[in-house]
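>> received
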Amino acid sequence: MKPILPVTVLAVRYLPNADPALCRALGVPEPWRCLGLLSTDSDDATYIALDEATKASTVRVSYARSLYAGAANASTPLAGEVIGVLSGPTPSEVRSGMEAALSLLASGQVGFRETAARENLVYLAYTVSRTGSFLSREAEIREGEPLAYLIAPPLEAMTALDKALKAADVTLAKLFAPPSETNFGGALLTGAQSACSAACEAFAQAVEEIGEAPIE
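>> returned
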């Protein structure tokens, strides 16, 4: 299995007193006015990192969207593949949350892998041992529960997801039906941490096998 591909952080900005109209449009809870903005070249790794921010500080992921066609087709140098917006009650809380997100992205623990047999065929299979408020909201589960975060290209994702669901005692919490904005697909699965880890292993193995032999 190849190592995790590094995530490039492209831009970070802080708005310590954002305009109320902007805050309302982004879904920032009253009376918060402090924002932190982030762009990177890897959307799903960044979503996991933004969730990490909610566990480290009093912040909320008020906005997070993938950009169309992915980082390789970004329309501007700093757009990348995703924009994320953290909101919080004070500038220090937002900065603390952002630093937790950036630390996870820099650690090399979360991100996509390239299959051993085929260049540029990548996938993400990551066990979140304890969800924060963002991924809990996305998966409609309670905060602190484990989660298997699974992403791959469309055919690979659906095939590997079937293997993951059959390999462990997990529940399909959210399906990312292909094509996503970045032309991928995947799912969030819930269950015990050990089950989520087993599902991730099965998903990764299935994508690797497709890379070796795409046509049965």
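>> The chain is about 35% helix and 25% strand.
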